[in-house]
Known about the structure:
Layout: E1 2-5, E2 11-14, E3 20-23, E4 37-38, E5 41-43, E6 57-58, E7 62-64, E8 68-72, E9 75-83, E10 94-102, E11 105-109, H1 119-125, E12 130-134, H2 143-153, E13 157-161, H3 178-185, E14 189-192, E15 195-196, E16 208-211
Parallel strand pairs: 3-5, 4-6, 5-7, 11-12, 12-13, 14-16
Antiparallel strand pairs: 1-2, 1-15, 2-3, 8-9, 9-10, 10-11
Helix pairs in contact: 2-3
Amino acid sequence: MKIKWFGQSCFSLTAENGTKIVMDPYHNMLGYKLPEIDALIVTISHNHGDHNNVRAVKGDFVLIKEPGVFSQAGIGIKGVQTFHDNVSGTIRGKNIVYNFKIDGLNVCHCGDLGHLLSLEQINEIGKVDILLLSIGGRAVLDASGATEVMKQLSPSVVIPMHYRTKALGILGFIFGTVNTFITVSKKDAKNYKELDVNLSNIKDLPGIAVLQYN
């Protein structure tokens, strides 16, 4: 499977058979710009402009934007209801954590998770091999909170998202940095342009894989 980051919380997952999933496509904003992108499956964690621009994705895709259990093109998908803040959504609303079973690995996209997980949510999410985790603080978990969620879900690899990058310009200063998360988590980290991961090589990857925004 190939994992590519497009900035903010938007990723593509491309299975070994070519099936592509796009998560949280955004409106061009905050300095990020989406290239032309296609998919068979699109998931939306919540209805905010930096996560819900389905019109940016080309193709006759299946849109998933609710909690539940789904299956498309041999890929199992589970959406678990969470919140965008730590007060049950009363400030920023609901958020969906999606766990994808793809090429024998479980890839979990946390969207804009704003709180530590309950035991019930941890059990619902299930096994996680690769965790796509918001770490930048302010409207999402900060480095400390993200580290706690990482411990709750025990992935082999964490891919940070929703943090300060050069693309954000001056607006980026509202978010924390990936280096802060690396320091707090006490995990080894390595940079990648794109992550090519499978059942055989996942054990050789560092605890944190930092994907580059292009």
